[in-house]
Amino acid sequence: MAKIYTELTDMLDAIQQDEAGEWIIDRENDGTPEHPIQMPYVSYSGIVKKFMDAVYTFDKDHPEYGLNRYSDILERNGIKWGSDSMGAVDVADKDGVCVMALLLGAVRAERFCDGALLGFFKRGSIQRWLERLKEIDAGGTDKGRQIFDLARLPAILAKPRMRTGIERYQFIMERVQRVDVSSDESFQKTYENFYTLGRYPKEFRREYFAYMERGKGAKPSFEETLSYFLKYGALEVSFSSKLVHTLDPEQPIWDGNVTGGHFGYRIPACNTKDREKKILERYERYKRDFLKYMASDDGKAVIRAFDEAFPKTGFTDLKKVDFVLWLDDGQGEPG
Predict the structure, then answer these.
(1) Which of 33, 74, 146, 155 could pair covalently with 79 via S-S, beta carbons 3.0-4.6 A apart?
(2) pLDDT digits (tens, 9 = 90+) for 102-112
């Protein structure tokens, strides 16, 4: 299948790591006739300017899309040409014509309202729309990207690693509220092996379990946990999410096999500006998409099959889905 949108979607990674633009406020002139104050304006980054050019080029090269009537296209899809309506639309079932109309509509909005395009970037709308185009180019249907191929489900549930993983996870979840995890060696050893925490320095592991013990009552959020362990010099995205999940199993785990392999989310590069903020935003988007998949027909099928194979585990539906998606990679224990 020919890929139509690569000129736009190839910019996705750069856009996700970019600040898009900033407001320029004239603070030097005093408003006198000799020194008139310049009106505020947005200074857009190089990648945004490249993006705008690519949208206009696509419109020129593909007249069959009829994007000169983008507002009519949006209206046919139940979308009003405005930041609120456009920003709120779920594009999972939208075709390429509609998504391109959204992109052109956002770019054109800047001509009528300074900063309108910046708003779409800051809310993540442009990124979501480009991700949808990437899905379409990859053969995605109107139902959006396929998270998991149900045909592989029986083989995954039959893997020996599935049963082993379930037993270890049950041990962790049954003991976490019954023992002092800051000192219980059996709990710590099982947890370290299951989640590969053992490769971390002893000092970090000791503080990790102490924080977990202190958090039993309050159930710290992902944001709080991520910030807490920053004192060790790194943003511990995966292990922060695993600790949060252990205390509140309705919260998803960030693991590359599931998060990246199935949902397409990756941790922003180390040199990304405002990296912690972007990680938090990305985690919330991933959580939203994970819960949406759980509620879908495919997600419900995964949960039913898991329950039939392993009845009465007591696991949350979230963890059942997590087990299956993780083992779909086939490289280790679920987690």
Answers:
(1) 74
(2) 999 999 999 88
